[in-house]
Specification:
Layout lengths: L11 E5 L20 E2 L2 E2 H11 L4 E6 L3 H15 L2 E6 L8 H5 L1 H4 L6 E5 L2 E3 L3 H11 L3 E7 L7 E5 L5 E6 L8 E9 L14 H11 L3 E5 L4 E3 L3 H18 L14 E3 L4 E2 L4 E2 L3 E3 L4 E2 L4 E3 L1 E3 L4 E2 L4 E3 L1 E3 L4 E2 L4 E2 L3 E3 L4 E2 L4
Parallel strand pairs: 1-4, 1-6, 4-5, 8-12, 14-17, 15-18, 16-19, 17-20, 18-21, 19-22, 20-23, 21-24, 22-25, 23-26, 24-27
Antiparallel strand pairs: 2-3, 6-11, 7-13, 8-11, 9-10
Helix pairs in contact: 1-2
Keywords: GTP-binding, Nucleotide-binding, Transferase
Organism: Diaphorina citri
Enzyme class: transferase
């Protein structure tokens, strides 16, 4: 059974951050993917802040790749949030289920359910609703599902009118459903008895057994969702996030001459005269945009410089990059840290 509360005040969350982030190279050649800024904030921090807002006070990170760098940066951020951050180190890749077994002693300290998240996910995080839904059905696990336009790219989830999951179909060639696993779960501690400390897929090896026993339910996500683990989806997710920000916290978005649509600009960035910025642009701390620049559907990361009269559309410009004068870049162009291109006159 679930804990007695209707909110996750005493709950924990485990976030899977052990991957190498190869799909987001060259950005991840110098920085682990969870620390890459999405909308001017490390990807992982979006999730952690949403968990804190829901009342979670202890977050466990299942780490392997560049763990020290994540510890250094995230410990500072989580101290500001007033939560406990625990690092669970994998000596070998353990898949999406093995890390739960590795952290069993931490997760099993109380009888409260705990969250599990994939670190690539950006969405309208539904953690409070997820706790209530999970408590109401009283079974062992709940996964969040979301609707997508191309379900054939994913594994789809089939469930009845009450949310009880009946089956999973991996990348169906014919339409059977447009609901997919959104990479967010809540489990009772009893799920840990199903998992050993070895490479294991929770989606392929644990979930089918749970659904067969009628112990796994699906909750439909309201609002936007995106796996931002590769550049095209990163930019699409940025557009969805900015649109959500426009609806919920419009004062955070930039307004003024030359600003078109949804644009997020760090206060320490500077934008020169005669620029056209937007729609769907994020500009990070310390960025310098010189005069006459046009930027659309792009993100400019910390301390980058974009020289005068450049045109950027569909780009991710890495930390401390320099984009030269009159440069034109588009079609999902990604520059890694310290990259320079074009004339720097």
């Amino acid at each position: 059974m679930c804990g007695s509360g209707d909110n996750p005040d005493n709950m924990k969350a485990l976030i899977l951050v052990g991957g190498y982030g190869t799909r987001l190279r060259p950005l991840t050649l110098s920085r682990p993917k969870p620390l890459v800024e999405f909308a001017n904030k490390p990807m992982l921090l979006h999730q952690i802040e949403a968990l804190v807002e829901a009342g979670v006070r202890e977050v466990i990170l299942a780490v392997s790749y560049r763990a020290e760098q994540m510890e250094d940066e995230l410990t500072v951020e989580t101290k500001k949030l007033g939560i406990s951050l625990v690092f669970s180190h994998e000596n070998e890749p353990l898949g999406t289920a093995g890390p739960l077994a590795l952290a069993k002693d931490i997760l099993n300290k109380s009888q409260e359910p705990f969250f599990v998240l994939n670190s690539d996910i950006i969405c309208d995080f539904p953690f409070k609703d997820l706790v209530s839904f999970h408590k109401n059905h009283g079974k062992e696990g709940t996964i969040v599902v979301t609707q997508v336009e191309e379900p054939s790219k994913y594994g789809v989830v089939l469930y009845n009118e009450h949310g009880c999951i009946e089956s999973f179909i991996e990348k169906p060639q014919e339409f059977v459903s447009n609901k997919i696993n959104a990479g967010m779960y809540i489990f009772n501690p009893s799920v840990l008895d199903r998992i050993e400390i070895k490479p294991t897929s929770i989606e392929k090896e644990i979930f089918p057994l749970m659904s067969k026993e009628k112990q796994l339910y699906a909750m439909e996500l309201k609002g936007f969702w995106m796996d931002v683990g590769q550049p095209r989806d990163f930019l699409k997710g940025m557009c969805l996030y900015l649109n959500s920000l426009r609806q919920k916290r419009p004062k955070l978005l930039k307004e003024g001459d030359g600003i078109v649509g949804n644009v997020l600009v760090d206060p320490t960035a500077t934008i020169g005269p005669g620029c056209r910025i937007g729609p769907n642009v994020t500009i990070g701390p310390g960025v310098v945009i010189e005069g006459g620049v046009c930027i659309k559907r792009s993100t400019i990361l910390r301390d980058a410089i974009v020289k005068s009269h450049s045109w950027l559309e569909g780009c991710i410009i890495g930390w401390k990059c320099v984009v030269g004068q009159w440069v034109r870049m588009e079609n999902i162009t990604v520059l890694g840290e310290y990259h320079t291109t074009g004339c720097h006159c």
